[in-house]
Each structure stands twice: as structure tokens, then as C-alpha cells.
Amino acid sequence: MGGQSGAGGGRWRLTLLLTMLLLSAPATSRGGAELRIACASNFYPTLQRLALLFQNRHPEAHLELISGASGQLYQQIRHGAPYHLFLSADRAYPAALHRDHYGDEPRIYALGRLALWDPRGVGLNVGRPLTVAIANPATAPYGRAAEAVLDRYRDQQPALRWRAVVAANVSQATQLVDSGNADLGLVALSLVQDRRGEYRPIPVDWYRPLVQQGMVLDTGNHQAKAFMAFLLSGQAGRVIRADGYALPGGDDAVAR
């Protein structure tokens, strides 16, 4: 997972470039085995693993994976980015797209968790101000969750001197902590559970539930429908749960 964090800083620039290239592609390219999946950055490492499993079943499929903050991807879709699938970190963005007839009805594929990551063992009650990396609350559901958790910490422990450092998405927030440019991170559990240092899962009632929904945007693309069906399968669910998510209807989804 360390390589994913290191690549996070440049991914948004690559996403912008890729979007420009895709927008200039001929419309006829949408009809083949090509499958472009736009996903929230917290889910990108999991999506990479799932894509390999899917391609074992569908060797004819050519997958392109694009990640970023859910709100940024949402705006790209509204401006014509030719993605076939959208995997958001919340349900609000897919609901808005579905309401405006951008694709099929959204489906829940994962329930996210937030964690406080302390890779260097700084601790919470040190005698100096601490920087805490979070995703941008304006565009990233994990950023909005982190903002709520910061407020809760400040209410419970007024002596804490924490300053938020805002990154474009939760993957880049993780990179800020990994590189030493922030002391702590309020980031996706899925991105830190296998990393160095300590992490504390945040109680789920401290923030609005991270109900992650996906939707097929190109309803005529059979590969997109096949991938959505695979995403909701038991095989994919085992990978998703192993990466730190809960699944809807499961025992680990209690209190959501």
C-alpha cells in the first residue's frame, strides 16, 4: 500500500489530463469492451484488486481506473467526462446524478470507516500544536466526516491544539502524513490499516455514515453492468471487507 500513497500526489493531475483526453475521444469508443471507472480515492487500492479479479472473468475487458474526490468526479461527469461507472464515497452525489437522469439507480457497495492515523507515535496530548491532515470537506465525503470528528475532539478535549491541513482528497491526506508534512491523519481506515504506526478507528456515531454508492452511467455498456454485478457479488464483498469496509446488511454494519 505504500506505493499507492506515494502516487497520490500526482494522480489528480493525471486524472485531469486523462479527462481531457477522454473528452476528445470519438464517441464510437464507448461501445466496445472499454470500461472507464471513476472512483473515490479511498476505494482506489481496493478497486485495483477487484479489477484484476474481474479481468480474470472477462479477459476481453479493457479497464481504465480514475480516482479523485467524489465531488470532483461528480463535476467531471456533469461536464461530460465519458465514464461508464461512478463509485462515490457517499450516496449524495450518485443520488443527484440519478435524479438528473445520468444513469441507473445507485447501489451501496461499501460502508466506509474513518480512522485517526498516528504513524510516528506522536499521541494526542503532546505539549505542542499538531497538524491533522484531512480531505477537502467541500468535495470529499471523508473530509466532511473528518471535520465533524475534529469538532468532537475539540469539544471533548479543549486543551488539544490541532490544526487541520486540507488535501484535495483522502488519498492525498494520507500522503501528507506519510511524508511527515502532517503529524496525524483523519483518513479512511482502508488506507491505513496495513501501514506503519498506530491507528484508531473513529466511533461511527461521530460522523455522518459513509454509505458508498456506485452507479452505471453508460446504461448501454454491458461491461459496466457486468462490473456492477461483480462489485455486489460475494467474491468482491470478501475483498472489500478485508480492506476495512463494512457491507450493507452484514453484522459489521450495525449502528449505521
Provide structural commentary:
It is a single chain. The chain has 256 residues and is α/β, with parallel strands linked by helices. It folds into 2 domains: 2-112 and 209-253, Periplasmic binding protein-like II (D-Maltodextrin-Binding Protein, domain 2), CATH 3.40.190.10; 114-206, 3-Layer(aba) Sandwich (D-Maltodextrin-Binding Protein, domain 2). Helix content is 39%, strand content 22%. The chain contains 9 helices and 10 strands. The chain has a 5-stranded mixed sheet with strand order 2-1-3-10-4. Helix 5 links the parallel strand 6 and strand 7 (162-167). The longest helix has 22 residues, at 2-23. It is elongated, with a radius of gyration of 18 Å. It starts with a helix and ends in a 14-residue tail after the last helix. 45% of the residues are buried.
Shape category? elongated
Task: Tell me what the CATH architecture of the largest domain is.
Answer: 3-Layer(aba) Sandwich
**What do the pLDDT scores average to?**
87
User: Largest beta sheet, briefly?
Assistant: 5 strands, mixed
Query: How large is the count of helical segments?
Result: 9
CATH class of the largest domain reads Alpha Beta
CATH topology of the largest domain: D-Maltodextrin-Binding Protein, domain 2
Structural class estimated from helices and strands: alpha/beta
Distance between the termini: 27 Å
The domain tally reads 2
Strand and helix layout:
Elements: H1 2-23, E1 34-40, H2 44-57, E2 62-68, H3 70-78, E3 85-87, H4 92-99, E4 107-112, E5 114-118, E6 130-135, H5 141-156, E7 162-167, H6 170-178, E8 184-188, H7 189-192, E9 198-201, E10 210-216, H8 222-231, H9 234-242
Parallel strand pairs: 1-2, 1-3, 6-7, 6-8
Antiparallel strand pairs: 3-10, 4-10, 5-8, 5-9
Helix pairs in contact: 1-6
